[in-house]
Amino acid sequence: MRPSGLAMTMILIGLGAGGCSLSRPDAYAKADDNDLTGSITRPAKDAPPTETDLAFARNAASDVLSMGDKDASQHWENPETGARGSVTPIAQSYAAEDGRKCRDFLASYVNGATESWLQGAGCQSSRGRWEIHTLKPWRR
Asked: Are strands 94-95 and 84-89 parallel, antiparallel or unpaired?
């Protein structure tokens, strides 16, 4: 029995589309970690936070403190370095010496195999925006 024109078309389409999934192990060049073109810089893994990492963490801290929620948390990520983490307020707000409303928080930092914590504090400005005034490695 000979396939109809429609069946033959479907077979040809299937073979044409399926050809992309066929491969030969020796048909592709293999790259290793030393093959860099220089057009994209590789972020240093297992490194301490960069200034841009800290800027992303500070921005997330300001956002989560602005929410004022008791159990809130805010994710952050630096697409340039791959570093990421989250910021969580850890205490109720308190009045600073100058009368501003302040709050402490913890921020996680993950980059490659590096995992650490940062502690910080922010105070609300007269315009209502939370300004982060400390962000440093957490000392247990």
From this structure: unpaired
Angle at 129 between CA 127 and CA 135, to 5 degrees: 135
Contacts of 124 (CB under 8 A, 6+ apart): 65, 100, 101, 102, 130, 131
- Which residue type does 101 have? K
What confidence score (pLDDT) does residue 91 get? 85
Confidence check: pLDDT of 10 > 80: no
User: In this structure, are residues 105 and 88 in contact, taking their beta carbons and an 8 Å threshold?
Assistant: yes
117 and 107 Cβ atoms separated by less than 8 Å: yes
DSSP 123: E
Asked if residue 74 lies in contact with residue 86, where contact means CB atoms within 8 angstroms, the answer is yes
Structure tokens given for 121 = 């504090």
Q: Interior CA angle at 56 toward 85 and 110, to 5°? A: 25
24 has a pLDDT exceeding 80: no
| Helix (H) / strand (E) containing 7 | helix 5-18
Tokens of 44: 């240093």
Q: How much is the mean pLDDT over the chain?
A: 78
